[in-house]
C-alpha cells in the first residue's frame, strides 16, 4: 500500500456500536452517542431497529472458541470475586461450552426484547478507541469514566443465576475483522456515509 492509501486506511477505520435494549430503555442514547462524538469519532451510519432472532444469530459468533470464552469469563469473574461456583449444581451445565451456549441464547433473546440503536463510527483506530470509551465487559470491572463504568451495575454470576445476560448497555466490535463483518450485517452499503 502506498503512503496515501495508508493514510486513508487509518483515517477511515470503522466500527459498529449497538446500544442494547437496557441503554435505550434507560434513556441513555443521547449521552452514549455524545461520548463518541466528543472523542472525535465520526458518525457514518445511525438507526433504530428491532432485531430479529435470525439477525442476532448471525451477529454473535458460533465458533467453539467464542462460545467457550463466554462461559470461561464467568468462571474467571467468580474466581476474582472469590465466589465458589459449581457449574453442575448452580447452573445445570456440564462445562463452560454449555454455559456459553446458554449465555449466547439469553443474549439473542435479550437483544430482540426491545429496540436497539445501531451506530457506525469512523476515525483512526476506531475499533480500539470505541472499546476504550465503552470499558470492560463486566460492569464492576469497567473503569469510571467509561460508559459501562459510569452507567452500568450488574454481575455475571447473578445474571446467569437469573437466566439472562449481563446488562452492560453496549455492544462494540472486538477487532477490525469483527467490525467489517458486523457493519456489513447491520448496514446496507447506501446507509453508510462516505
Ligand atoms: P460486546 O460483544 O457486547 O461488545 P464484549 O466484547 O465486552 O461485549 P463478549 O465476551 O463479546 O463481551 O460478550 C458478549 C456479551 O455477552 C457481553 O456484552 C455481555 O452482555 C454478555 N456476557 C458476557 N459474559 C457473560 C456472562 N458470564 N454471563 C452473562 N452474560 C455475559
Ligand atoms: Mg464481544
Short description:
This protein is an alpha+beta fold and about 190 residues long. The protein contains 11 helices and 4 strands, in the order αβααβααααβαααβα. It has a 4-stranded antiparallel β-sheet.
Oligomerization status of the protein chains: single chain
For the biggest β-sheet, the strand order reads: 2-3-1-4
User: Sheet bearing the most strands, described?
Assistant: 4 strands, antiparallel
Overall mean pLDDT score?
A: 96
| Estimated helix fraction | 40-55%
- Molecules bound to protein: adenosine-5'-triphosphate, magnesium ion
N/C terminus separation: 21 Å
Number of DSSP helices? Answer: 11
Q: Give the radius of gyration.
A: 17 Å
Strand fraction equals: 5-15%
> What is the string of helix and strand elements?
HEHHEHHHHEHHHEH
The gross shape turns out to be: globular
DSSP E strands, number: 4
Which class best fits the helix and strand makeup? alpha+beta
- Note poorly predicted spans: none
Amino acid at each position: 500500500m502506498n503512503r496515501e492509501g495508508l493514510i486513508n486506511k487509518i483515517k477511515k477505520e470503522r466500527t459498529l456500536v449497538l446500544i442494547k435494549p437496557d441503554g435505550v430503555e434507560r434513556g441513555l442514547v443521547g449521552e452514549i452517542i455524545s461520548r463518541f462524538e466528543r472523542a472525535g469519532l465520526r458518525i457514518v451510519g445511525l438507526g433504530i431497529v428491532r432485531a430479529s432472532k435470525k439477525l442476532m444469530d448471525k451477529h454473535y459468533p458460533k465458533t467453539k472458541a467464542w462460545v467457550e470464552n463466554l462461559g470461561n469469563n464467568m468462571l474467571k469473574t467468580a474466581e476474582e470475586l472469590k465466589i465458589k461456583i459449581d457449574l453442575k449444581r448452580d447452573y445445570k451445565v456440564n462445562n463452560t461450552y454449555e454455559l456459553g451456549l446458554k449465555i449466547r441464547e439469553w443474549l439473542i433473546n435479550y437483544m430482540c426484547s426491545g429496540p436497539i440503536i445501531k451506530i457506525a463510527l469512523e476515525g483512526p483506530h476506531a475499533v480500539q478507541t470505541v472499546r476504550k470509551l465503552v470499558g470492560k465487559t463486566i460492569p464492576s470491572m469497567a473503569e469510571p469514566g467509561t460508559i459501562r463504568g459510569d452507567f452500568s451495575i450488574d454481575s455475571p454470576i447473578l445474571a446467569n443465576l437469573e437466566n439472562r445476560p449481563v446488562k452492560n448497555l453496549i455492544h462494540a466490535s472486538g477487532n477490525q475483522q469483527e467490525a467489517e463483518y458486523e457493519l456489513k450485517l447491520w448496514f446496507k452499503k447506501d446507509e453508510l456515509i462516505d
